[in-house]
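Attaching the record inline, Q. Sequence:
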Amino acid sequence: MVPIRPEAEQKLRAGFQRRVDRQAGRYVEQLTHAEQLAVRLECGQVVGVFSGQAGGGVRRGAYLVALLPLAAIPVLIAGAAVGVPGMVPLLAVTPFIIGAWFGFTMWRWREPKRRVWFYAFAQGCAFLDGPQADAVIMRWSEVTEVGEVWTNVYDVSAEESRPTLTAYRLACAGGRTCEISRSLENVRDPYPGVGPLLRGLMPADVGTTMPKFPSLDEVIAAYAGKPGPR
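Structure, as predicted:
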């Protein structure tokens, strides 16, 4: 394999660095906040700033409320059978009423989406569940157990639900816990999720010029430890 020329390598590195700088420019406020928090808490240098969307799901009990009108169907059928006036027309429009009520309930009971942040430091971490939320602070030395959260996720290719590792649960001796979703991405990474794939497709010499930022899995493994009690 022909090695990459120094001039070409320099141009590649400069191009990658421009992408990194543009990516960091989108999150100046959060990156600065993480640096300030690290200094104030004396948690060492910032290892990574991660972000993602949370919420958007339906609250518990929503389906029960949405399906309540179904309980009226036997009454309507019985009323129509004995000739109660107005029951037959009402029974005819019942599916439309139930559909409208179901849609309204799902919309009304849906949790609003919010952006969450996870700051990883050399000696601890901070989790912010929403823009106005107070930071939940944990030091890595306080973590007594790293738990895995598995969720049944529908696999389109297999056409079935399969258990998938979706989050980590960090527990402290005082009983505090913090659940960190694996969907959070490093905001400094201009190629989130596809960086390793791109490096694997590139020639080795070219792949080494591509900047690498730690993923959430790597941070948890390196600082919190492997799943299980510590």
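The chain has a mean pLDDT of 81. Residues 62-108 form one domain.

More tomorrow.
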